[in-house]
User: Fold these one by one.
Assistant:
Number 1:
Amino acid sequence: MTAGQPDDVTLQEGQVPPSQEQGGHGEQKVTWLELFYDLIFVVAFDQLAKRLGDAPQLAQLGVFTLLFGAVWWSWASNAVYASRYGNESRAYRWGTLAQLVTMSMIALTLRGDLVDTGRAFALAFGVNRVLQALQSLHAAREEGEAFPWRLAGSQGLAGGMWLASAALPGGSSGQLGLWGAALAVEVLTPVFTRAHAHARLPHEGHLPERVGLLQIIALGAIVTEVVTGGRKQALTWATLVPALAAILTVVGLWRLYFDQARALPLLAAHVEGQVGRMLSWLYGHLPFTLAVVMVGVGLGHGISDVDAKKDAVSQQWVAWPLAGALIALVGLRANSLIVTHRARLRDRSIWVMLVAAGAAAGLAALDLDTVQLHLLAAGVTLLAAFLVATDPVTTRLGRLEEVVADRLEEGSAPDSLEPEVVEALQDEPDAARAEGTSGNPPTNSATRRS
C-alpha cells in the first residue's frame, strides 16, 4: 500500500491521523482521490476555453468569467476543506466522490449554449454546493466550532439559489444574476467570518500543494490548446516555431510561479493570525488561473488561424491575459512581502513583473504576425522569470518559508515573521532547537492566544 492514500487508513471510526488533530502540523499528503478529483478540472478548463470561440465578444467574456469563477470556487472549497479538516475521513472521501460526479456533469455542460444547458448546469452545480454544505455540517458536528456552521449555512443557501435558478430560462439575465449572487454569498462568507477561522486553519503544507497542482493543470491547458491548434495546420516551420515559443511561454510562467515562496501568507495565518492575508493569497490565485487559461486560448488560436482578422483577435487574447497573469503574480508577491514585513517598493521582482506586464500589454498595439507575437511573448516571460529567479530577495523568502514551515512541524513556531526573528532561528544550532522543543505541543496562533 502507498502511504497517505485512501485505502491506507486503519483508524477507528471517528479517529483522525495525528497530523490532522486540532492544531497539528504533521505531514499531510495529497491523496489519490484528490488527484483524481483535480483531474476533472483538466476537462473543465478545456471546455471553458472552448466557450470563448474564435472571436469572443464582451458578453461571452463576462459569462466565461462567471462560469470560471464558479468552477474554481468549487475546487477551492474542496481543497480548503481537506486541508482544514483532513483528507482521510470517510465523510471527506465519500463526499468528494459525490462531488466528482457532479463536477463531471458540470464539465459536460460548460461548452454548450446556456440556452440549452443552463438549467442542467444549475442543477449539477446546486447539488455540488449542497454536498459541500453537508461536508461542512459534518465538520461542525465533529469539531463543535462556529466557523464550519457558518460555511455550511452559506453553502446551503448558495446551493438553494443554484437549484432555484434552474426554473428560470437558460442563459437569461435573471438566471445569470442569481448565479452571481449565489457565488458572492459563498466567496464573501469566509471574509466576513474570518475571526472565527483561527481555531482550525488549513494545513500549511497540504493546501499550497493542492493550489500548485491546479496551476499545473492550468498551464497544461496551454499545451493542450497549442497541440489542438497545430492539428489544423501542416507541420511547417511557420507552425512549429510559434508552437515552440508558446511552450517556452508556459515554462516562463511555470518558473515565475513555482520559483517563488508560495505559502508565506498561509504560514503568517498560523504564526501571526493573519487570516485576511491568507484569504488574499488564496483568492489571488483565481485571476492568475483565469488569465493562464485565456493565454492558452490566444496561443492556440494563433497557431490554428490563417485568417488575418482572426489572427489579430488572437493577438489581443495573448497580450492582455499575459499581462493579467503577470499582474496577478505581482499581487501574490506583494502579499508575501507584506506578511514578512518587507518593503514592497524596493523589491526588484515586483518592478520586473510590472514592466513585463506593461510590455505584454504593449504587444496588443503592435502589428505582429503569429510567429513574431509568440516569440515576443516567450521572450518577455522568460526574461522576467530569469530576473525574478536570480533576485536575492526571492532566495531569502524561499529560505524563510522553509524555516518557518519546519518550525511549525516541530512545534516551535516563531512569534513573528519579522526578518530578524526568522534570521535568528536560522542561526540557532540544531541541538538547542531539539532541547527547546522537547515535549512541547504544536504551536499555532490559536494556542498562543489561549
Note: The chain has 18 helices and no strands.
Number 2:
Amino acid sequence: MSKEPDGPESAAGATASRPRAEKRRMPVWQESLLLLVMAVVLALIVKTFLVQAFYIPSKSMQPGLQVNDRILVQKVSYWGSGTPQRGDVVVFEDPGEMPGAEGQDRIDWLDSNEQQPADPSLLTDVLGKIGLYPTGGHLVKRVIGVAGDTIVCCDSQGRLEVDGVPLDSSGFTLNNSRCDGPEKATCDWSAGPIPDGMLFVMGDHRDDSADSSYHLNCVGREKDAPCDASQAYVPVSAVVGKVFARVWPASRMGLVKRPTAFDSLDSAIEQQDQ
C-alpha cells in the first residue's frame, strides 16, 4: 500500500497541535510595586492641586469645628484669579513663617500644641506627606475682611462692623464676652483698610482664638485711631485652601457651609458702594 503524501490538511493539523507560547506576565511583586508607585503619585497630585486633609488642633473654631475633627480642604476655588472671600473657612500656613517687611520680625501664630497631630507616628507622618492622613502645622480660621475692608469693633449691640456694615455672627460663633472682638480685652479697636494681598481672619470661638484681632497692637494709639495691624494680617499666598467638609467623626460628617450672614453682609456693602 502506498503512503499518502502530506497535504495542507495534515500540515494544519500539525500546526494546531503545537502549544502556543504563553504571554509573559509581570511578576506579582513588580506589579504590586508599580501599583504602589502609581497610588503615591496620584495621591501627591491630588494633595498638591485638589484636596488635602487636615485636623483641628484647638478650640478656636468651635462650635462648628471641634478639637481633633478631620477636615478636607479644596484648592480649586482659589486657582487662577480666585481668592478667599468673607465667610470662607480657610487653612493657612503660619504668618510668622512668612517674610515680613524689611527690618520687621514676624511673630509666630502657632503654639506647640498646634504643631502636630495628637497621635504622631512614622506611618502617619509618611501618609501625611503624601496627603493620605491629616496633618498639623497649619491654622484654621474664618475670613472676616479682605483687601480694602476696614474692621471695627464694635457697634452698640457688640457686633463687628465691616466697612460700616454690622455682621450678625450669632448663628455660627461661640462667645462669652459682651462684644464680638474680645481678644484685645476691649471692645474698641479697628483695623484697616486691609492691604492688597492680605486677609483679616478670626476664630468662631471669639474669646478663645489667637487670630487677627489677637495680633493687633493697639498700645499708645489715640481714641478711634486704627491699631497697628502689621502682625495681624494673613497673606493670601499663605492660604492652602478652603474647608469644605468634615469627614471625622462619622457622627458629625458633613459639608462645611458659608453662613448666610455673610451673604447679607456682602449685599449691604455692595449697595452702599453703588
Note: The first strand starts at residue 51 and ends at 55.
Number 3:
Amino acid sequence: MTTQTRTALPAVHDRLGRYTVERVEDLPEMQGTLILLRHDLGARHAHVSREDDNLAFGVTFPTVPRDSTGVAHILEHVVLMGSQKYPVPDPFFAMIPRSLNTFMNAMTASDWTTYPFSTRNEKDFYNLLGVYLDATFFPLLRYESFLQDGHRFEFETPDDLSTPLKLQGVVYNEMKGAMASPGAVMWRAFGKALYPDLTYANNSGGSPEDIPNLTYEGLRAFHAAHYHPSNAFFYTYGKLDLPRVLDEIETQVMSKFSPQTLDVSIPDQPDFTEPRRIDVTYPGTDVERGGQVSVAWKLGHTTDPDANLRWSVLSDVLLGNPAAPLTRPLIESGIGSALADLSGYRDNFREGAFAAGLKGLSAGKAAEVQALVLDTLAAIVRDGIDPELIESSLHQFEISQREVSNSGYPYGLQVMFRLLGPWLYGGDPVTGLRLEAELESLRTDLAHGHVFEPMIQRGLLDNPHRVTLVLAPDPDLAARTEQAERELVERLSGGFTDEDRARIVRESLQLQSLQEQESDVNVLPTLTLEDVPPTVLRVPYSTEEAGRALIGRVPQPTGGLTYLDVQVRLPEVQGDLLDTLPLYAYVVTRSGAAGQDYLALARRIEAVTGGVSASVGVGGRPDDLDALRLTATFSGKALARNGEKLVGVLRDLIAAPEFTRERLEQLLKQRLAGLKASVVNAGNAYAERLAAAQVSPAGFIEEHFSGLTALENLKAIVEGEGLDALLERLNRVRDLILEGQPRLCLTATGADLDLDLSPITGEFTGEAPVGTPEPHTLSGGPQARVTDSPVAFNAAAFRTVPYTHPDSPALLVLSRLLRSEYLLKEIREKGGAYGGGAAFDARGGVFSFSSYRDPHITRTYEVFRGARQFLDTELGVREVTEAILSASKTLDPLTSPDTAGRLRFYGDQAGFTPEVQEAYKARLLGVTLHDLKRVTDTWLTPYRAGYALVAGRDPNAETEALGLHFEVETV
C-alpha cells in the first residue's frame, strides 16, 4: 500500500477552499493533532492527523425523531440502497467485497446517525469516501427500497390474494427481534423514563407497532431536512492529505448545496418535582429470575467536561469492580444475581444519567432494591470513600488515555466516538480526547477535601429527578404481541378495496422484479487483486526457554504499557472437567487468590493493572483437524512501572486461586443471567455453534465452552445441588493447569522487555505431555432450541478440510461469494431477515450458513440448499475476483501494538507461520469458479451437514417437507 506524504499542518484562521480552520490542538497522548474546520455552508469537520496508515472517515447527522416509527433507522438503511452516481440496489453491500476495508457500517443512535469506515489502503479510502458521500447526500430513496427495508403489506404467497396478509420488512423484523431482548426493552424504557418530553422518549430504531405508521413521504422529508451539509459533522483520521480530502468533499457534496437552517437542538428535560416509578415488561418466561430493577437519575449537561469526568470516575469508583462500595452490597444482598443493565454513568444523552440496580430478580423486589441502592449511597456519603479506591480509578483513566489499540473498533473510529459526544451537543470536542486539565483540577480538589461524597448527596440522594425502572418478564406477552400484530394488520387493511389488494400484489411483484434484476455494479469503484499484499505481518520477537516454559518477548511501541499473555497447553483433560474449564475461566479472575479474598484481590487488580482476563480454547495444527489441544490463557496489561505487580497478579491467579462456596454461587448466578440474556440477541452464534458441534470435534468442544450446552450445564449447577462438586473440580483444574506447558508472550517497549517472568514460569514444574482430546461430535440429529423470540436464527454447518489442504482457500472464497451474491439477496432482501451469511473457519475447517432475526425457517433452509444451484447461474470473473478480495481481508487482520506480537508468536507456535499463511494467500489468489463448484460438490453435501436453530416455536411442523426433524429443547 502507498500513502501520500502529509502536507504541513494548517494554522488557525487558514482558509482551505471554503473551509476555515477554527482550531489546531496537539494530542500528545496519541501522538497526533486535532484540526477543527467549518465550511461556509455550516458543515463541521474534525481531522485527527496521526502517523497511522489505518485511515478512517465518518459523517454524522444529528437526527431527532419525534415518534417511534423508526424513521431515522429505516432511513439509515434506505440511503445505502442506491444513489445518483451509483444507482445499483445495494452499493453499500456491493462495496464490501470490492474493498479491503477494516470497518464498514452505519449506525442509528437515539439522537444521531453515523456512517463510518476505515481502511489501510489509500485508493480504497477514496473509493469508499465517494460511495459514502453520494449515498448519504444523494440517495435515490426508491419506493421499493422503503418497502423492502422499512415495512410493507404482503400476502403469504405474494401473488395470491386468497392467502393471509402480513407485515414484512427488514427493519420491521429486526426490531421485532430486538424488542424481545430485555436489554433493548430496558434501554428504550430508560430514555423514556428519564427524558419523557424529549426525543429520547421515542424508539429511534422503531417500535414494531409504530413502524407501519411511517410513510414514504415522511421518510423523504426527514432526509431532506437532516441530511444536509449544514447539519453534518465530518470526521477524518490518519496519515491523510487533508486538503485533498476536503477538495473531494467540496467537489462531490458542498458545491451542490445552498445554506439551510435546521433546528436539531435538544432542550433541557424539565426537572421532576418528585421521584417516579415506571413498570415495563418484555416477552419472557423466567418469572423466577427474569426481572430487573434500576434506580436512575438525570444529571447535568454532558458537555461540561469537568462534571463529565467526575461522574465517570465516580461511576467507576462505585461500580467498577466486585469490591466497589456500591457493587458489593448489591451483589452480596442476595436479592438479585448481577448488576442491572445500564448501571453506571451514561453520557450518551445531552443530559447525563446515573443508574444502579439488580437483575436476576423475582417479582415484587422493586422497593427492596430501591431502598438498598439509596441506603448504600447514604452510607457511602456518611462513611466516606476510601482514597485508595479513587486513586485506583484515576489509574484506570491514565491507562485508557495512553492505550492505542485496534481491539474492538479500529482506533481511529474509537477516537471519533470519543469526540462526537461533546461535539454534537455543542461542547468542545477536544474534551473528549484530552482530560489533563480536568484530571489535574480533580486531583487538586481531592487534595483539599471530599469531592465525590457531596456529588452523591446533591446529584443523587437530594435529586428528585429519579426513576425506579422495573422490568418484568411476561410469559403471555409474546402471544399477545402476535395477536396484536394480527389485529394491526386487520385494522390497517380493514378498508382495503379490491384495487388496494391488487396494488399490494403489484408492489410485491415489482419489488421481486427489482430484486431479481441484474445491476451493473461496475459503476462502483473497486480494488483489484494487485492491491492485495502478498505477504503477512512479520513481527520480530525473541524467544527463550525457562524450564518447562517458552517465553516470547516482543518489542512494540505500546506507549508505556506492558501486555502479558500466559497460554497453557493442557495435559489430558478428564471428561468431567471439560465442562468445568469455561466456568473456571469465568470465576478465577473474580475470586480470591494467594490469601486475599475476592474483594482484596479485586482492589489489587484495579490498583496495579489495566485489567486481567482468563479464557479457554481449543486449537489444532494447520494440517490435521483431529490433532486438537486445549488451552487456558491468562492475560493482563499494566503501565510499565507496574510490570512486576502485573506478573505477581497473574502468578497468583494461575498458581494460587482460592474459591469459596458463597462467592462461587454469586458468580454463577451472574454468569447465568448474562448468558440467558444473550440468547435472544445472539441466537445466530448459538445456532452456528450447535450445528458445528454435530460435525466437528473442535465445534463440539466450543459448544461445551460457550454454546447452549454450556448454558444448560450452568443452569443445572445453579438450580441443582452442584456447587460442592464444582468446587472440587475447580481445584482439579487448577492442578491440571500447573501440569501444563506454558507459552508466555510479553509485549512492551524495548526498554521494558526485560521484565522478570520467573515468578510465573517457576510454578510450572510438572512433566505431563500435552493432551489430545478424544474426538466427539453431538449426536441426535438436527437441533432446535425454543426461546422467547418472535424471529428465528437458522444455521447449517459442514466439516471440511484443514488449513493446508488445497481446497481450504476455495472454501473461504466460496463463503464470501455466497454471502454477497446469493444469501444477501435471498435471505435479507427477499426473505426480510435482518441478516444472512456464510462463513468459513479456515483453521477449524468448518463451513457454515446462518440467518439472523429471520421471519422464516423452512424457506431459509431451502435457500441454504440452493447454494450449489446458484453457482450454475451467470457468475463470472468479477464475482470471483470480489470474493477473493473479500476473503483476503480475513488473512490480513487489523492489528495494533497490543495484538500484533501475540498473534504472530502464538500463530508461529501453533504452526501457522508466515510461510504457511503466505502459501495459503497465494493459493487463494488463484481460486477459480470451477474450484468453487468442485469444493461445494465435495464438502457441502446434505449428508455431511449439521443443522440447528434458535426460535420461538417448534419447527418440525414446517420442516418435515425438507426431510428435517429437529430434536427440540427449551432454553
Note: Residues 808-830 form the longest helix (23 residues).
